[in-house]
Design goal:
Elements lengths: L13 E2 L9 H15 L4 E3 L8 H10 L7 E6 L6 H15 L4 E6 L8 H14 L2 E7 L3 H9 L6 E7 L11 H8 L2 E5 L14 H7 L3 H9 L5 E3 L6 H8 L8 H11 L1
Parallel strand pairs: 1-2, 2-3, 3-4, 4-5, 5-6, 6-7, 7-8
Length: 265
């Protein structure tokens, strides 16, 4: 479940950071990779207005145009646009680039202490009331910032916090992850494979044989082991899409999960 809602999203979705930065044939390949991911069941796609200067959203829109009702679409507003009117304008611009009528999950990309969170959240609730967005989320927010954001939403809930989480980036385990588990806030893990620099050597070979998985698949299985966590590895190449899609064919046992926790330390 997503947050406290009854919304079900895939445990492994697709991230789109840096997509749209290239041109021509590479754009076509990126769209085809997203389409393949949807076919394989990864029907949760995350993007942002800042990715590729908006071109990432346009590519995502091309990929999901024919299957919009099957895809849970998330995007993010940049912190420099957290003023009330700017939030509304950014949302409309994202909707236009995506070619959609509404956004499923609209997230604050990074905290911005220069703009009162109450003003930003007032705009987010206005977008919910207009039917422009369905759910409100945050990204890269601490426990204190998430709490303040939630307290600034009289009629809505923070349903997710998108943060970096991987075997080599485990800071959230100390306080943010337990907090989100307690408050039923979904953790959306970005860069779960460390943008390609995965610690493959730390994955015991006996586990690779036991589960018949690659190191990347084992790591995605580990990142999403806890019920409150979903992951959005970058999805721009067909071979990675197909590899990621098979990451949860078999789930790690508790014993193997704990063994990996120690190995990754």
């Amino acid at each position: 479940m997503l947050g406290r809602t009854r919304e079900r999203i895939p445990v492994i979705g697709m991230g789109t950071w840096a997509m749209g930065n290239s041109t021509g044939e590479r754009h076509k390949e990126e769209v085809e990779a997203l389409e393949r991911g949807i076919e394989l069941g990864m029907k949760f796609i995350d993007t942002a207005e800042s990715y590729g200067g908006g071109r990432s959203e346009a590519l995502v829109g091309r990929a999901i145009g024919e299957v919009r009702d099957q895809v849970f679409l998330a995007t993010k507003v940049s912190p420099e646009h957290f003023g009330y009117d700017d939030v509304l304008k950014s949302c409309e611009a994202s909707i236009e680039r995506l070619g959609l009528k509404y956004i499923d999950l609209y997230q604050l990309h990074w905290p911005n202490p220069r703009i009162r969170i109450q003003e930003t959240m007032r705009a987010m609730e206005e977008l919910v009331s207009r039917g422009k967005i369905r759910y409100v989320g945050v990204s890269n927010f601490s426990v204190e910032q998430t709490t303040e954001a939630q307290e600034s939403l009289p009629r809505s809930e923070i349903i997710s916090n998108q943060v970096r989480y991987s075997p080599s980036s485990r800071e959230i385990e100390s306080d943010l992850l337990p907090f989100c588990e307690k408050e039923k806030i979904t953790v959306i893990a970005y860069s779960p494979l460390d943008t390609g620099g995965i610690p493959a050597a730390k994955v015991p070979k006996e586990l690779l044989r036991k589960y018949d998985m690659t190191a990347a698949q084992i790591i995605l299985n580990w990142v999403t082991y806890r019920e409150q966590v979903t992951a959005i590895p970058k999805a721009s190449r067909m071979e990675h899409i197909e590899e990621n899609a098979k990451s949860l064919d078999v789930r790690l046992t508790e014993t193997d999960y704990q063994a990996l926790c120690k190995a990754f330390e």
